[in-house]
Amino acid sequence: GWRVSQSILLLPGDGIGPEIIAEARKVLNVLQRDHALDVTLEEGLIGGAAIDATGEPLPPATVQAAEAAAAILLGAVGGPKWDRIERHLRPERGLLAIRSRLGLFANLRPALLYPQLADASSLKHELVAGLDIMIVRELTGGIYFGEPRGIQTLDGGEREGVNTMRYREAEIERIQRVAFEIARKRGGRLCSVDKANVLEVSELWREVAERVAGDYPDVGLSHMYVDNAAMQLVRAPKQFDVVVTANLFGDILSDCAAMLTGSIGMLPSASLDANGKGLYEPVHGSAPDIAGQGKANPLATILSLAMLLRYTLGRLDLAERLESAVGRVLDRGLRTADIAPAGSTTVTTQEMGDAVVAALST
């Protein structure tokens, strides 16, 4: 029986996006050719590239392709070129729009320190060597989306800014379930981070987490206030396995955890919907200052592809194969500029991609 192959939508975007997506495409081509990966590849416009071509950051054609695709691999959006445009037309709006359009409510941010790069961290070697944390951030609710919001002028003429942090039980429950499922496949420990001593919305968050825990007797649930969690991340980060938290807290904590690894050019991410369909992207952004120079590190994008293989396509075999290929390339001492110790030889974006492809074939 033949089956329709699944499509992966590539969205290169802006800055270094096209360069790093080109390397991921090379990897995909090898997986298609040599490792029975049955997918078709499409490409679309998003962000500044889409604004230049169509006048909007998320054109209808991209939305259509995204809805039809099994998964999306995104480069990066944004750059100084588009900073002066009205807010609702900026490149970043394209990313926010696609997340909400596809219902991508679960953001997975691993903070994984490859042992070869332990010296890149600003923390002591023994604190971070072997670090492997997964932060699960709620992505479509909370204070970033809550209404009422806005800036209003009060009676005396003074202005006031308003944002609202709100979560419904169902929103809390579904992000907790994603986190419990991931913890079950990892170290079996889940830390739910909130501010329940001050915020009612966090009180509810904690209550729902406790309730969901009843369905996962094999996972140990703990709770931590967000201020303490920030402190513990820099004090003793290896105590964490999976962390689940609200949109705002997750935004801050995941960047903090990313920096523990010292190599933001290495970090992938995934944003998933209720059925495991996802948008996968490197954490590092569009880095317009080095665009077009072959300096960008493609490994975060290649590791995002590994997450895509694992979480959407269910090809754990290929995900592991790709991750170990990255490890072997690092073992060989190959480094792009962002992860290279002073005075060492660096390789270009393309050379790094070629090295991963070569390691895949051995």
Description:
With 362 residues, this protein is an alpha/beta fold. Helix content is 40%, strand content 19%. The protein has twelve helices and twelve strands. The protein has a ten-stranded mixed beta sheet with strand order 2-1-3-12-11-4-5-10-8-9, sandwiched between helices. Strands 6-7 form a two-stranded antiparallel ribbon. The protein is globular. The protein starts with 5 loop residues before the first strand and ends with a helix.
H-E string: EHEHHEHEHEEEHEHEHEHEEHHH
What kind of sheet is the major sheet?
10 strands, mixed
What's the mean pLDDT score?
Answer: 94
SS field, number of helical segments: 12
- The fraction of residues assigned to DSSP E strands is 15-25%
User: What gross morphology would you assign?
Assistant: globular
For the termini, the CA-CA separation is: 31 Å
Strands in their spatial order, largest beta sheet: 2-1-3-12-11-4-5-10-8-9
Q: What percent of the residues sit in helical stretches (DSSP H or I)? A: 40-55%
Radius of gyration: 21 Å
* Strands, total number: 12
**Class from secondary-structure proportions:** alpha/beta
Q: Which spans have pLDDT < 50 for at least 5 consecutive residues? A: none
Keywords:
alpha/beta; 362 residues; 19% strand; two-stranded antiparallel sheet; ten-stranded mixed beta sheet; globular
